[in-house]
Amino acid sequence: MSDTRGRLLDAAESLYAARGVDAVSLREILQEAGARNATAVQYHFGDRAGILRAIFARHAPDVEARRHALLDAYEDGERGVRPLAAALVRPLAARLADESGRAYLQIWADVLNRPAPLVPVAVLDDPRDSLCRWRDLVEPLLEEDAARLHRRFTAILYASIELARRARSGPRTDDRLFTSYLIDVVAAILGAPVSPETRRLAAERDAARR
To answer: Which residues form the HTH tetR-type domain (predicted)?
Structure first.
């Protein structure tokens, strides 16, 4: 990575985490990075979506390796909803250990928690991606109505928001209790039954769409 590109990425990561993606201009990233060339961001990243992809790519190798290892263990015999909840949470929770990782968690939650994603979530269609693999393994454990109502995305979003909240509160000496409890709650989200009221309302919605 070139020195300029690295400084720009560090600046964007820090500013996006502190103020939110929407509140930071490309010019501010240039200024924070001390870049003299006014077109440096466009040259290295193209646009804001390109910067975000680069931030996510910076952290992806560690997250992917950790999640694939946990999913391997699941497929080797460690069955149940909680191991899959752990496979979602633990690779991200590991990023709480350093400043760059905490920034990443806040940015990821910001990007995910929107009506329309800032970056196309193409990884969900890529079987090599750990999150795609995770979704495929979770699906057979869900009630049909829970899967139809996007229970997996609910779990992903909740975990991301809670991890971002933890990241914003600063470095902690020990995140083990937080992580274990978050896994418990995500497992509960995945395994919660769909109520008769929700089934009825979902059926009414589906009928109205026909």
So the answer is: 8-55
pTM summary value: 0.92
Judge contact between 58 and 104, C-beta under 8 A: yes
CA distances (Å), origin 52, targets 98, 152, 163: 19, 23, 18
Tracing tokens 């109520």 back to the chain, one arrives at 195
Contact 167, 184 (CB under 8 A): no
Apex 207 CA angle, 201 and 210, nearest 5: 145
pLDDT in tens, 137-169: 999 999 999 999 999 999 999 999 999 999 999
Smallest CA-to-CA distance from 166 within 104, 87, 85, 83 is with 104
Q: Which long-range contacts (CB under 8 A, 24 or more apart) does 19-27 make?
A: 20/110, 21/48, 21/52, 21/107, 21/110, 21/111, 21/118
| Torsion angle (degrees, nearest 10) of CA 39, 22, 114, 152 | 70
- For residue 130, give both structure tokens: 């750990």
CA distance 91 to 66: 5
What are the residues whose beta carbons fall under 8 Å from the beta carbon of 87, sequence distance 6 or more? 67, 70, 71, 74, 130, 134
CA end-to-end distance (rounded Å), the chain: 52
Residue 166 makes CB contacts below 8 A (sequence gap 6+) with 96, 105, 172, 175, 178
